[in-house]
Prior knowledge:
two-stranded antiparallel ribbon, mainly alpha
Amino acid sequence: xxxxxxxxxxxxxxxxxxSVFTAGAGLFEDDEARKAILDxxxxxxxxxxxxxxxxxxxxxxxxxxxRSLLDLQNQIESLRAELAKLRGQDEQLARDVAExxxxxxxxxxxxxxxxxxxxxxxxSLDGQEFTADPAEKRDFEAALGIFRKGEFxxxxxxxxxxxxxxxxxxxQPSARFWLGNAQYATRDYKDAITNFRALVAQSPDHARxxxxxxxxxxxxxxxxETRAARKTLEDLVKAFPQSEAAQAAKERLARLK
Length: 257
């Protein structure tokens, strides 16, 4: 009986020890798990904080990048505006230069035109070649134009004025010829004879000389100076036998006889 009690006690003690051991082992496992969880939480928190910091930094960098891009875009737009302005200035400058060149050309042309008004010009008239001032040429042609319109008194005044103002002009013989014709047309025969004779005296080889002599005879006929007219016509035939004026003189001589 005592032995049985001892065995029972031994079993109880052993069971109690096993229970204590098991309870200790469970307690140990809970601490390790808790510690592991805490460590895991700590790592998660650390990682989260690191991620938040990284995200914040990335956001800040993105914001800074957007600002930089915006600044760059503004700079580009400013450069474009400046470039457009410069192009506009270049175009305006080109227009100004073109206008200046045109004006210089016009000025140069105007100067040339004014100079040409004073430069002698070569003239070929009635078989004669000579140089004359542009003003002489203009005035002679103007007087001749008046004559051709049949305005003989005005033509007479124009040619008389031309001869007076241009005594050394190469136009002198022709001017005297047309002045004499204008005077003949107005029946101023004596003055016409004076100018025709002046032409022959100054330029006996002039292409108009035979016509001038014939015109002298015509004036003498109008003045009833038949003898003088016959003498003039005979002198014309002798001096210029091959001229058309000489042929006309022969016909008039025949009528005068």
